[in-house]
Specification:
single chain; about 240 residues; alpha/beta; Spore Coat Polysaccharide Biosynthesis Protein SpsA, Chain A; 6 helices
C-alpha cells in the first residue's frame, strides 16, 4: 500500500499560532509529525506529501520524518483538497490493484482507531475503496454519509441528523478511482465531496469504518479540543 498526506491548504485561520498548518503544535507534537507517525508501524511502501508553495519557507528541521527513505514530498499550490489529492495520486504511480491511503494533515484520531482502520483497508478488494467516518460532529461544513447494505456508502451529502455520520478526512482509494478524479479536475470541479459523490453515482463500492470521534484542527480553538481528546489516548 502507498499513502498520501495532503498538507497544501492555506491554514489561514491558524496563522496566529504557526506560520503554516503543518507546523501547528498539538500536545507537544506538530501536526505533520503527528500525521506521519500514525503510519510508522505499517511498512508503507511510499508516502507522498504535498505542500503549498508558501511552505517552502518552513523550518524543515522540525519535520525529521519528512526525510525517511520511503517519503517523497513536493510543493504545489492547489485550489482545493480535490486538486491536492489528484496531484498526490498521479505522482504516486499507482498500479492496477493498488490502493493509496490518504490523510489530511489536520486529522486527529486515536492511534488504535487508526490502526484498526488501516488494517481493514489492507483487506479491501482491489477495485474497492473505503472512508473512515465518525458520529461526532464538530465540523462547520461536515460531509454527511448515508449507509447502505453491509455498511457501504449509499450517498454523500445527505440531510444531517443525530444518527447520520460524517467523513473524517481519512480515506483509502483504489487505483480504479483515478479516472473519476481526473475527470473532476478536467471539468474544473473544486471540492473533494464532488469526487466522492461521483464515485458513488458511477457504482464504485466504498466501504465505511465507523469510530466514535475524530477531530480536524482548522482554528486556534481546535487545538485545545484536540489536546483534551488526545489525553485519553495512551498511545499518543
Amino acid at each position: 500500500m502507498k499513502a498520501g498526506i495532503l498538507a497544501a491548504g492555506e491554514g489561514s485561520r491558524l496563522q496566529t499560532v504557526a506560520t503554516c498548518k503543518p507546523l501547528v503544535n498539538v500536545g507537544g507534537k506538530i501536526l505533520f509529525e503527528r500525521t506521519i507517525n500514525y503510519l510508522a508501524e505499517f511498512n508503507i511502501d511510499r508516502i507522498m506529501v504535498i505542500f503549498n508553495e508558501d511552505e517552502r519557507k518552513m523550518d524543515f528541521s522540525l519535520l525529521p520524518s519528512l526525510f525517511q527513505p520511503n517519503v517523497d514530498h513536493f510543493f504545489k499550490s492547489t485550489p482545493s483538497s480535490l486538486h491536492s489529492l489528484y496531484e498526490v495520486m498521479r505522482r504516486s504511480e499507482l498500479k492496477a490493484g493498488e490502493h493509496i491511503f490518504v490523510m489530511m494533515v489536520d486529522a486527529i484520531i486515536h492511534q488504535q482507531d487508526f490502526d484498526n482502520y488501516l488494517m481493514s483497508c489492507r483487506k479491501l478488494p482491489p477495485s474497492q475503496s473505503s472512508v473512515l467516518i465518525t458520529s461526532y460532529v464538530e465540523d462547520e461544513k461536515p460531509l454527511t454519509v448515508a449507509l447502505g447494505a453491509n455498511g457501504r456508502v449509499a450517498a454523500f451529502q445527505v440531510p444531517a441528523g443525530p444518527e447520520v455520520p460524517i467523513t473524517s478526512g481519512i480515506y483509502c482509494f483504489s487505483a480504479d478511482t483515478l479516472p473519476v478524479l481526473t475527470g473532476c479536475v478536467e471539468r474544473g470541479e473544486q471540492k473533494m465531496r464532488n469526487f466522492l459523490k461521483h464515485l458513488v453515482e458511477q457504482g464504485h463500492i466504498i466501504h465505511t469504518f465507523l469510530v466514535d470521534k475524530t477531530l480536524d484542527v482548522d482554528r486556534p480553538e481546535d487545538i485545545a479540543s484536540a489536546e483534551k481528546f488526545l489525553e485519553l489516548d495512551p498511545q499518543q
